[in-house]
What does this fold into?
Amino acid sequence: YRLEPETRKVTDARGVAVDLTGAEFDLLQVFLDRPGRLLSRDQLLDLTQGRERDPLERSVDVLVSRLRRKFSDTGDGPLFKTVRNGGYQLTARVETVESHA
It folds into this structure.
C-alpha cells in the first residue's frame, strides 16, 4: 500500500484507490507515524480528535474494525493487533518514501 498524506489518498499495489473516510485516514496516519507502538484507545482518540474517551465510547474500535476489513487482503496476516487491556498496534513494516514533487 502507498499513502500520500498531501492528497489523503491510499492505493494498493496495483494503484487502485482504497476508499477511506476522513476518520479512517486520520487513524491510519496515526498508526503509520508510530509503527509497532502499542496505542491505547485514549491515545488514539487524543491523537485523532484531540479529546479524551468516554468510558463507553467504542468509536476507535469501530474504526480499527473498518481498517482491518479494508486492508484484509495483504496475505501477511493482520495489519492491526489487538492487545487486551492495552490497545492496538500496527504490525506491518512501514517504509517512508520521499516524494519527488
The chain is about 35% helix and 15% strand. The mean pLDDT is 86.
